[in-house]
Automatic annotation (TrEMBL):
It is found in: Golgi apparatus, Golgi stack membrane. Residues 100-394 form the NAD(P)-binding domain. Pathway: Nucleotide-sugar biosynthesis; UDP-alpha-D-xylose biosynthesis; UDP-alpha-D-xylose from UDP-alpha-D-glucuronate: step 1/1. It catalyses: UDP-alpha-D-glucuronate + H(+) = UDP-alpha-D-xylose + CO2. The chain crosses the membrane at residues 17-37. One of its GO terms (biological process) is UDP-D-xylose biosynthetic process. GO terms for molecular function: NAD+ binding; protein homodimerization activity; UDP-glucuronate decarboxylase activity. The lineage of its organism: Eukaryota, Metazoa, Chordata, Craniata, Vertebrata. It is a single-pass type II membrane protein. GO terms for cellular component: catalytic complex; Golgi cisterna membrane. It comes from Pelodiscus sinensis. This is UDP-glucuronic acid decarboxylase 1. Residues 7-86 form the UDP-glucuronate decarboxylase N-terminal domain. Belongs to the NAD(P)-dependent epimerase/dehydratase family. UDP-glucuronic acid decarboxylase subfamily. The gene is UXS1. Its cofactor is NAD(+).
Amino acid sequence: LVQRVLMTWCISKINNSLLNVVIIFSLSFFLAVWGNFINMSHNFLNLNRSIQDNGDQKVESKIEEAVAPLREKIRDLEKSFTQKYPPVKFLSEKDRKRILITGGAGFVGSHLTDKLMMDGHEVTVVDNFFTGRKRNVEHWIGHENFELINHDVVEPLYIEVDQIYHLASPASPPNYMYNPIKTLKTNTIGTLNMLGLAKRVGARLLLASTSEVYGDPEVHPQNEDYWGHVNPIGPRACYDEGKRVAETMCYAYMKQEGVEVRVARIFNTFGPRMHMNDGRVVSNFILQALQGEPLTVYGPGTQTRAFQYVSDLVNGLVALMNSNVSSPVNLGNPEEHTILEFAQLIKKLVGSGSEIQFLSEAQDDPQKRKPDITKAKLLLGWEPVVPLEEGLNKAIHYFRKELEYQANNQYIPKPKPARIKKGRTRHN
Ligand SMILES: NC(=O)c1ccc[n+]([C@@H]2O[C@H](COP(=O)([O-])OP(=O)(O)OC[C@H]3O[C@@H](n4cnc5c(N)ncnc54)[C@H](O)[C@@H]3O)[C@@H](O)[C@H]2O)c1
């Protein structure tokens, strides 16, 4: 606009002289240069703006890159704060009990923990993690009604409780034979300590005894009046005699100190969270079938066993604890099968092509084991309800998952990728 006004003004003022021509030319030249300068500075400003925009975008994307992992961490933290627990009943102060479960991180103990927690009680699990593991009760960690204490029952324990389920003891032959002296200490000194605690705080104690107190029985099926047939110096004696003396201690405390005791003689139990390599027949067969290995039967396979599913046992333990039955009670499933039948059934349920292999008989392996549960039925109104195949399918599912975890190392935290700083070499 300025250029045009000036030109018009000049033309109107100028005569046809040479000087005028020079002036006009100079003016036009000056104005042209001025115009170009203005254009160039516009272009320069635009260029500058676009470079700045690009730079801003790059900075933004860098910030986003740095912030994204932080956002993810915050999400994880939020998730951990809002951890979901299995549903828990609300119990009034009057009905809610403070319950101690020794060996509560083990196979049976963890299922008992689940039941008592879901019933609304306050549960303290004490375990030295010899055969138990934190994963069995990890779904309760952090819950206001739950506490996990790493403690060996061979040492005294001072807490305030209303009921004690005393389960701490290795239960499978390879585990209890691993350190027979420790097994004896756990079952004797450990039981004395728990009875001492029960006496001090006025708690009721339930002892998880075993059908092994009947040894290699001469009567069949075994009822609670049978005194047993145990070899006191055999390889199983540390466990069998340990449990027998634990029972003796319970009744000594009951008679002498007035402690309320309950004694459950538990027969073979199976289910999820049982030990994969504990050498017991159900876990052996399931693992072998899943891995396509031969199912190993010791002896001719005609020896019998009766297996109960773990939820049946847990219901029996709770019923016994809350009953007024202070004499020993058998808890087991009387449905008897030969070992060979078990092998065939598990093979079928797994859908395995494994063969059945017969090996020489194990020492002191009882030939027959079947509970007489008349007393439990009569006095507790309890009997097993889970069909064998249903229970076995659950155990097979659990073992299959465990094998998958092992194969994928799922429970081993993956190492985080190292953050390498530019221009620096790392020395590991
Ligand atoms: N599972 C069965 O078939 C069966 C049969 C008969 C009796 N029982 C009895 O039931 C109870 C539980 O058996 P399970 O099959 O769950 O066995 P398990 O080995 O899975 O559980 C035993 C628990 O006790 C803990 N423990 C062992 N010694 C301890 C100590 N000194 N101090 C603290 N904790 C200790 C272990 O770490 C483990 O968590 C045992 O007393 C066992 O004798 C089980």
